[in-house]
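Before the break, one more example. Copy the sequence into your notebook; we will annotate it together after we see the structure.
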Amino acid sequence: MLRSIFSKPYSKLYIVGDNSGWSVDEDAKDLKGFAEKLGIKAKIIKKARLNIPQAVHYTSQFSLQYNIYKNRHKLSVDYYHGNPEKQESFRKCFEALKEHHEKISRVRVSNREMEALIKSSGIDEGKVMRIPLGIDLNIFKSQTENSKPALPAGGLKIRNSLGIPQDTVVIGSFQKDGVGWGEGNEPKLIKGPDIFLEVISRLKSQIPNLWVLLSGPARGFVKNGLEKIGVPYRHKFLENADEISDLYDALDLYLITSREEGGPKACLQAMAKKVPLVTTEVGQCKDLVVNGKNAKMAAQEDVDTLTEYALEMLLDEKLRDFCTGNALVTAQENSFDSQLPKWREYMSVLVQ
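Here is what the structure looks like once it is written out:
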């Protein structure tokens, strides 16, 4: 039990991640950073075993299904995605929210679609705040001309370290899109790995020197698919998610093909790095992307348009420069520093 006998009630923020070492745990680290910038004492814990009532934030909506309500803590939760009509586990989360919403003090959503869904649960709408998954511009620094070889957006140093030839076109995908935490040979279809492979297959016929750079856990389905269609790839899993910034320097294009997302984080990461972005209309991409201005965005499962947009971005230098310039502005507008006022308002309900 975490003893806090010298603490006043609701004077500290305790943050519970999912102990996966991946995206949700990164959210916990980010939230701790926001709290500390606001002068709030914060600690990341595995379970909320506290002897004095405090503010406890859960970084996964799946926590709502468990016995977290029998205490006097002020409860807060991230609820980024999960259409209850599409998956049983999502339905259970939403039913738990509807049942226990009076015991929850705050819900953070990342996009308009989820904001509307959460507010439909019966929860007091004043408890719900939309704060996008922001970007740390101190880590994700935009590419400079000095960091590029002849090809646009290709990082000479990182390509050499990965054994990727300099005369290739490299498309990136940095996510978890397999079921579980093993090899990931079973696809997590809401992440669209099947769509990704179909787009890559079509691009191969028009871009003979095509490569794919992967990061993230459980990528077996995509790796097996790339081998079947004969597209070379590198998979670089990084234990420190901040190191992903360097991988963007090797890319000519970042491709998001998801059917459902809360973010993804890659949307603003690519924008901050000035890597051309093509995405499906999902999550906060749907809120942040102005099609043809800061990225190209197609409907979900629209393989034809995704392929067309990817080719446009790769072949049209003026379009590429126009979009990446505007994308950087979008990233700056959603930087961690720009989000501090929203987090101050969010925390004001939780910590005294």
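The two ends are 22 Å apart (CA to CA). The CA atoms of residues 171 and 212 lie 5 Å apart. Try to locate both features in your own notes.
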